[in-house]
Amino acid sequence: MEISWNDRDPIYRQLHDRLVEMILEGTYRNGDSLPSVRQISADHRINPITVSKAFQLLVEEGVVEKKRGLGMYVMMGATEKLARDEKKFFLTEEWPRLVEKIKRLGLSIEELLEEGSVK
User: What CATH code would you report for 11-77?
Assistant: First the structure.
């Protein structure tokens, strides 16, 4: 698990976001176990309490569940739930800002499609 830490966001939030990305990308699928708190802590040289806080946030969101004595597991349906949440966030938060910027820059649909198809 590669994580490029930044100074803007708390480490637990960045770890949470990276785990969400990995679930959405299929690295961890419904029913899969996640690495242990100790493993992540050792691999990334971060406090185990920080890792636990990221896991707790995932539990509260209904994405992972703790199985006593076994560890953390991706809940059934988590991938679909996260995809729905990401789409909703994009359409309600990010898309309106993009539309506003497109208008401000005077970009046409043709310019956007042409630029998007080049890459």
Answer: 1.10.10.10
